[in-house]
């Protein structure tokens, strides 16, 4: 009974010390074993690990890809049109030892504060370069700009033990005080372009109308010339027919010509003529021959 009194507390202490010396490293994290603030071991593989109870402690860091939103800042591209931009970055802790040495006990809060400063500095540098305009930033070329920001931020973040995986611009807007002026300038540019297009359209329309008028005039002239030729040929043929008819039978020719004269003179329902009854015009309306 007396031995039992000492064995049970001893076993409890042993179990407690044993459990205190074991820790589990999750697959989503990395761990550092510290002894009086100094790094004694690095645990990057998941599974069970050991430490000295009460003397050593375990500090865990997330091994997943993390996100960071930057503050909104103003940048001035080479065309002096200020823009308001903000971005987000995706990063991970690449070197946990270097990370601990860089940020100390501050952990992710200190790291993200420093990384945010790095990102803002690189955003200002890249977007404010000589060859970069606001149109470039607002176009599809911004992808290359984001890659440049990511590469340069990666170089600066290596001292923190971080790996900058990606950088994206979330917002790219004009400052409020510049919006009205910018919209007015854009409207004026669009109106000028519209006026130029209208002027070019009117000029083209005038050329088309002039060409059409000339074509119509030439067509009518050609048609009138051909009509005159046809009428001349028809008159010549008619005269030839009349001459042949006159030569074949003069009396019949005179009779036919008199009928044409009657037809032309007595057109309409209310035509009237005043002449003497013995006029030669009525020779073929009398009975008998014109001589009678």
Tell me what you see in this structure.
The structure is a single chain. This protein is an alpha+beta fold. It is 54% helix and 20% strand. The chain is built from seven helices and nine strands, in the order αββββββββααααβαα. The strands form three sheets. Strands 6, 7, 8 and 9 form a four-stranded antiparallel beta sheet that branches. Strands 3-2-5 form a three-stranded antiparallel beta sheet, with no helix packed on it. A hairpin with a 2-residue loop joins β2 and β3 (38-43). α2 (96-103) crosses α3, α3 (107-127) crosses α5 (142-157) and α6 runs antiparallel to α7 (250-265). It is rod-shaped, with a radius of gyration of 54 Å. The mean pLDDT is 80.
The SSE order reads: HEEEEEEEEHHHHEHH
Per DSSP, the total helix count is: 7
Strand content: 15-25%
CATH fold descriptor of the largest domain: Tetrahydropterin Synthase, Chain A
By CATH's scheme, which homologous superfamily of the largest domain applies? Band 7 domain
The CATH top-level class label of the largest domain: Alpha Beta
Coarse shape: rod-shaped
Structural class, by secondary structure, is alpha+beta
Count of DSSP strands: 9
Biggest beta-sheet profile:
4 strands, antiparallel
Task: Record keyword descriptors for this entry.
4-stranded antiparallel β-sheet; Tetrahydropterin Synthase, Chain A; 7 helices; 4 domains; 292 residues; alpha+beta; 3-stranded antiparallel β-sheet; rod-shaped
Secondary structure layout plus pairing:
Elements: H1 2-20, E1 22-25, E2 29-35, E3 38-43, E4 47-50, E5 56-62, E6 66-69, E7 73-75, E8 83-93, H2 96-103, H3 107-127, H4 134-138, H5 142-157, E9 162-173, H6 176-248, H7 250-265
Antiparallel strand pairs: 1-4, 2-3, 2-5, 6-8, 7-8, 8-9
